[in-house]
Every structure is written in C-alpha cells, then in structure tokens.
C-alpha cells in the first residue's frame, strides 16, 4: 500500500462549528464573552489577541467607550474608586484613558474635554493579558476586564456613564485649578 493510499483511506472527522461556550482564549487571558459576542466579532477578537494584535470591536452594540484625555483618566479612576464605584474595564491609550461603559448610558453626556464612542465607531482592544505598563500599539489595560459567560447580560461588569460623571467633573475641576 502506498503512502498516498493510506492517507486517502484515513477517515477524518467532519469539521463542526465550535459553540461559543467551547471557545477558549487560554493564551490571551479572560474573555468578556457577554460584551464581545453581541458585536459579532468574538472569533476575530480571539484571533487578533492570539496573535498579539489589537481587536477592532464596534462600539454601540454591547458597550460604549468614554474617552478621557491625558492624565485626567488616572485621576478619574482614583475618584471613581473613592466613590465606591467599580470602574469596569479601562484602556490606557496614546490619547488618554478609555472607559468601557454600558451602551446608551452616555447618550446625554456633555462633559467638557471628553468624547463618547458610540454605534459605528471602532474600539481598539488590546489582548486581555496586556496590562499597563505593557502595551500593544501604545494601548494596554489599566483596569482589565474579567471573564464573563456568554449568558451574562451585555452590561454585566460594565458601569453606566452616570457613575463616572461626578468623578469626571471633579477631576476636570481639579486639573483646572492646577493650571
């Protein structure tokens, strides 16, 4: 029997789609399935993270992003903690801090020197194991997200913008007083 014949007679199982519950990101750390799965980009995120790249995830479907400029982000984070609020995931990027917040919770946000990424915008998420001071393309997790099951509601573990408003305004005021 030739090698070719032996290989063609070898019965291989048919490929099957992998249910989201079986997807693993062991090499990339904990995955917030609950706010990635609704975006339709879960597999792309796991692939990008597995390669050590940023994942492009659309905002507005299961989370929005509050962009806080420069060093103001760390001050907001301290003030949020002092207020007894869990900040949720926060990315430190080249322009400042990016707070992952519940979708639609910042629809009325009008605080100075900040921007909200909403539906149609892409958020660039570093791999879950990239924690500041380590970065990928200048971005790392200042506050990492935690693993969430696909069955968890999309907003679980992600704060509402209303919980960030008062600490944010206090940080802006303090920054203004220092200048």
Topology:
Layout: H1 3-9, H2 33-36, H3 42-50, E1 55-58, E2 64-69, H4 72-82, E3 90-93, E4 96-101, E5 115-117, E6 122-125, E7 140-143, H5 162-178
Antiparallel strand pairs: 1-6, 2-4, 2-5, 3-4, 3-7
Q: What is the makeup of the main sheet?
A: 5 strands, antiparallel
Shape: globular
Low-pLDDT sequence parts: 21-26
Order of adjacent strands in the largest pleated sheet: 5-2-4-3-7
Structural class: alpha+beta
As a percent range, the share of strand residues is 15-25%
**Pattern of helices and strands:** HHHEEHEEEEEH
Number of alpha- plus pi-helical segments: 5
Distance between the termini: 83 Å
The Rg value, from CA coordinates, equals 20 Å
- Determine the fraction of residues in helical runs and give it as a percent range: 25-40%
Average predicted confidence as pLDDT = 84
Count all strands and give the number.
7
Describe the structure.
With 179 residues, the protein is α+β, with helices and mostly antiparallel strands. It is built from 5 helices and 7 strands. It has helices at 3-9, 33-36, 42-50, 72-82, 162-178; strands at 55-58, 64-69, 90-93, 96-101, 115-117, 122-125, 140-143. A 5-stranded antiparallel beta sheet has the order 5-2-4-3-7, covered by helices on one side. A two-stranded antiparallel ribbon has the order 1-6. β3 (90-93) and β4 form a beta hairpin. α4 (72-82) packs across α5. The longest helix is centred in the C-terminal third of the chain and has 17 residues, at 162-178. It starts with a helix and ends with a helix. The model is unreliable at 21-26 (pLDDT under 50).
């Amino acid at each position: 029997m030739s090698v070719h014949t032996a290989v063609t007679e070898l019965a291989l199982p048919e490929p099957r789609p992998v249910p989201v519950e079986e997807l693993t990101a062991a090499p990339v750390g904990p995955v917030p399935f609950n706010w990635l799965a609704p975006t339709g980009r879960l597999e792309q995120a796991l692939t990008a993270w597995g390669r050590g790249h940023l994942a492009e995830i659309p905002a507005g479907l299961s989370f929005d992003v509050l962009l806080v400029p420069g060093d103001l982000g760390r001050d907001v984070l301290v003030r949020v903690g002092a207020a007894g609020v869990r900040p949720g995931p926060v990315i430190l990027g080249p322009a400042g801090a990016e707070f992952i917040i519940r979708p639609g919770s910042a629809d009325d946000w009008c605080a100075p020197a900040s921007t909200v990424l909403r539906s149609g915008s892409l958020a660039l998420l570093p791999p879950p194991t990239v924690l500041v001071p380590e970065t990928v393309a200048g971005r790392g997790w200042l506050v990492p997200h935690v693993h969430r099951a696909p069955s968890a509601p999309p907003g679980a573990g992600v704060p509402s913008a209303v919980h960030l408003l008062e600490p944010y305004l206090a940080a802006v005021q303090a920054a203004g007083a220092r200048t």
